[in-house]
Amino acid sequence: MNKKTKSDDDTKQLSARLGANPSFLNRELSQLAFNRRVMAQAEDRHIPLLERLRYLCIVSNNLDEFFEVRIASLLANSQIEGMSAESPALTAALERTSIECHQIVDRQYAILNQTILPQLSASGIHLLRHSDRNEEQRAWVKAFFDQEIRPLLTPIGLDPAHPFPQVVNKSLNFIVEMAGKDAFGRSTSIAIIKAPRVLPRVIRLPDELSPSGASFCLLSSIIHAHIGDLFSGRQILAYSQFRVTRNSDLWVDEEEVKNLRQALQSELQSRQFGVAVRLEVARNCPHHLAHFLLEQFAIAPNRLYAVDGPVNMVRLSEMIDQINVPALRFPPFAAGMPPQFDSGGDIFEQLKQKDILLHHPFQSFQPVVDFVRSAAFEANVVAIKQTIYRTGMNSDLMEALILAAQRGKEVTVVVELMARFDEEANINWADKLERAGAQVVYGVVGLKTHAKLSLVIRRERDKDGNGELRYYAHLGTGNYHPTTTKLYTDFGLLTSNQKLATEVNEVFMHLTSLTKPKKMDYLWLAPFLLQKEIIRAIHNEAEIARKGRPARIVAKMNALLDESVIRALYEASADGVKIELIVRGACALRPGVPGLSENIHVRSIIGRFLEHSRIYYFRNNLQHDVYLASADWMNRNLFRRVEVGFPVLDKTLKRRVINEGLTPYLKDNTNAWVLGSDGNWNKPKQHRRQKQYNAQRHLMLALGALAPSHTATHSANK
C-alpha cells in the first residue's frame, strides 16, 4: 500500500474522526464502547460461566487489534502534514482513548479476579497461583518446570555484549532485577527471559492433584515461582512479566513492488517487530523497571498498562478449551439444513427451479461447500471462479477448488493477500492452488478484494439440443471460512438468475483483466458505484417523504463511519424518513438530535453469535428493495476495497431477509443496546410485564436445532 493511503481514513476525514465535528461521534471511542458492550456479557449472570470468561478473552483480543491497528494509525497520522504530534486534536484523541482503554482494562481484570475466577473455583475449576498451591502441587509444578520449561529458557543478562534482545509482538517475557555479582565478578543487574512460543500458556495439573475438580497453572506463574533457579548465586530483587504490542499493519510500496506475494512474504517476517505502541506489565512491577522497559521500546507512559493477572488474558481461552463441563457452556446448537438439501439431488437442477437463501450460522454452510465440490466433479462444468478473503488454515472449500483444478476445470481464484492477520494462510493456499493448475490473481494492488463471490459455468443443452453456457453463482455477506460460518451471522444467496450471475462474471473479468467494469443493472460495485447507489437510494426515500408518503430505511452492518452516507441519512431524517440502524460496532452517526437526526434510531445486538450481516432495506413506495452486501458503510469499504452489494429479487426470499435479518433484531429487548444522542450506549428498560424477546434465540429455534428449554443465547463478538 502507498504510505499516503495506509490509514483507514482519508486525511480529509481525520479532523472529524478525532471529534472536531460535533455531528459525528469519535470512531475510536465508539469502537471502545463496543468492547464495553462485549465486556458486559462477562458480567451477565444468566450466561454460562466459561462463556463469560471467553467474553473477557475476546475483549483482550479486540484490544490487541485496536492497538496494533487503530492506535498505531493515530500515531502514524502524527506524521501527516499539518497533524504533528503537537496537534491539539490528535493529542486530545490519544488522551481520550488512553483513558478509556485503561478503564476498560481495569474493569476487565476486576471482573476476572472478583467474579469469574472465584465462581469457577466454587464450581471446582481452579486457576492456581503459587501461593494457592499445596505442597504436592508445588512439587509437581517444580518437576514440570525442571523437565519441560527450564531447558527451553535462555535468560539474557544485559551488558554491552548482551544488548536488550528483540522482543516479538505480543510475546510473553520477563524482566528480572538482581543483586550481587555475576560469574565474572561484574554487577550486571538486569536480565530478560523470553518464554518460547512452543510452551503452553496454561498447564493442567494431574487429576489426582485436583480431587475437587480441575486445577490449572499459568506458565507465567510457574516461571515466576522458579526464577531464582535460573540465576544461581544471585539475589532476586524484583521481577515482572511483560508484553509489548506493536504496529502490525503491513506496508508494501505499490509503486515499486513487482510481485505482491513475494513482497508480502518478506514483510510478514518483519511484522513481529513493528513500532511498539503498548507495554503491559504485572501490577506489582516496580516503577523503575517499568520505566526502563518504556525507554527500551520508546513508549509513552500513558500507554503502560499494569494488570492484575496474566498480561495476555487471551491465553485463558486455552483453559476454557480443556474443561468439559456442559453446564458451564452454551447449550449445543446444530445448524439447520435448508429443505431443498434434505432430499439430496443435483444442486444445479435445484437452482434452476429457484434461488436458495442461506442464513448462517442458523443454517449450515455445507451447501456452499457442496456447490463448489459438485462443480469439481460435474462433467458439464467447465469453469469455477472464486474470491477468497479469509478462509483459514483448513478449508474443505479450498480443497474442492484444488480438486477441480486437478480434474481439468478452468479454476480462477482471486486471493486477497492483504487480509489482515490472514496473509500467511492465504499465501499458502495461493501456492497450493497454483501447483494444482489454478489461475491465481491477487486482486487490485491498493484495493482489498473483500467481495464474497463464487461462480460456476456449466455447458448445458437448450430445449433444441444446442449447447450453451449457463452461470450459477453464490454471493454472500461473510467469508468462506469454516470457523466463522459457525459463529458469525451472515446471508448467502445461491442463484441461477442469468442476469445476476452474468454480472458476477463481469466482476471477475474486471478483477483479472483490470479493465473498467461494464455498466451493471443489479450489482453495486465498489469502489465505483456502491457509495453513489447507497446515497441515491437514501435520497430517493427522502424525495418520497417530501411528497408526503411513508418512507423508511432499515440497515444492518458492522460499522457506520462514512461521512457522506451519514450526511445523506441526516438529510433524509430531516425530510421525515424513518431510519432504523442496527450497527454492531463503531458508529459515528449521532442519532436523536432535534433538527439533525431525530428520526434516526441506532441499536446494537451483542449475542451468542457475532452479528456480521450487511443488509440494506429501502421501502421505495412499497417496492421493498433489499440488498445484501459484503460492505459496511465505511470509507475504506466504499473506496479502498472491491465490494459487492446485490439485490434479493425473489419476493419470498426478500421477505425472509426482512423477517429473519431485520425484524427480529428490531424487536430484540434482551441483547439490544441503544445509542443515545450523547454517544452513550444503554440497555433499553424493560417493562414489568414485557415479554423477553431474543432475536438469535428465535432464529436458532426457527432454523436450527436448539432445544426450546435452553434459554442462554449470548455470543462471541470479535
Automatic annotation (TrEMBL):
<keyword id="KW-0547">Nucleotide-binding</keyword>
<feature type="domain" description="Polyphosphate kinase middle">
    <location>
        <begin position="136"/>
        <end position="318"/>
    </location>
</feature>
<feature type="binding site">
    <location>
        <position position="488"/>
    </location>
    <ligand>
        <name>ATP</name>
    </ligand>
</feature>
<feature type="binding site">
    <location>
        <position position="62"/>
    </location>
    <ligand>
        <name>ATP</name>
    </ligand>
</feature>
<dbReference type="InterPro" id="IPR036830">
    <property type="entry name" value="PP_kinase_middle_dom_sf"/>
</dbReference>
<feature type="active site" description="Phosphohistidine intermediate">
    <location>
        <position position="450"/>
    </location>
</feature>
<dbReference type="InterPro" id="IPR041108">
    <property type="entry name" value="PP_kinase_C_1"/>
</dbReference>
<dbReference type="GO" id="GO:0016301">
    <property type="term" value="F:kinase activity"/>
</dbReference>
<feature type="domain" description="Polyphosphate kinase N-terminal">
    <location>
        <begin position="24"/>
        <end position="127"/>
    </location>
</feature>
<keyword id="KW-0460">Magnesium</keyword>
<comment type="similarity">
    <text>Belongs to the polyphosphate kinase 1 (PPK1) family.</text>
</comment>
<keyword id="KW-0418">Kinase</keyword>
<dbReference type="InterPro" id="IPR025198">
    <property type="entry name" value="PPK_N_dom"/>
</dbReference>
<keyword id="KW-0597">Phosphoprotein</keyword>
<dbReference type="InterPro" id="IPR003414">
    <property type="entry name" value="PP_kinase"/>
</dbReference>
<feature type="binding site">
    <location>
        <position position="390"/>
    </location>
    <ligand>
        <name>Mg(2+)</name>
    </ligand>
</feature>
<keyword id="KW-0808">Transferase</keyword>
<dbReference type="InterPro" id="IPR036832">
    <property type="entry name" value="PPK_N_dom_sf"/>
</dbReference>
<dbReference type="InterPro" id="IPR025200">
    <property type="entry name" value="PPK_C_dom2"/>
</dbReference>
<dbReference type="Pfam" id="PF17941">
    <property type="entry name" value="PP_kinase_C_1"/>
</dbReference>
<feature type="domain" description="Polyphosphate kinase C-terminal">
    <location>
        <begin position="346"/>
        <end position="516"/>
    </location>
</feature>
<dbReference type="Pfam" id="PF13089">
    <property type="entry name" value="PP_kinase_N"/>
</dbReference>
<feature type="binding site">
    <location>
        <position position="420"/>
    </location>
    <ligand>
        <name>Mg(2+)</name>
    </ligand>
</feature>
<feature type="domain" description="Polyphosphate kinase C-terminal">
    <location>
        <begin position="523"/>
        <end position="696"/>
    </location>
</feature>
<feature type="binding site">
    <location>
        <position position="612"/>
    </location>
    <ligand>
        <name>ATP</name>
    </ligand>
</feature>
<dbReference type="Pfam" id="PF13090">
    <property type="entry name" value="PP_kinase_C"/>
</dbReference>
<dbReference type="Pfam" id="PF02503">
    <property type="entry name" value="PP_kinase"/>
</dbReference>
<comment type="function">
    <text>Catalyzes the reversible transfer of the terminal phosphate of ATP to form a long-chain polyphosphate (polyP).</text>
</comment>
<dbReference type="InterPro" id="IPR024953">
    <property type="entry name" value="PP_kinase_middle"/>
</dbReference>
<keyword id="KW-0479">Metal-binding</keyword>
<keyword id="KW-0067">ATP-binding</keyword>
<feature type="binding site">
    <location>
        <position position="584"/>
    </location>
    <ligand>
        <name>ATP</name>
    </ligand>
</feature>
<protein>
    <recommendedName>
        <fullName>Polyphosphate kinase</fullName>
        <ecNumber>2.7.4.1</ecNumber>
    </recommendedName>
</protein>
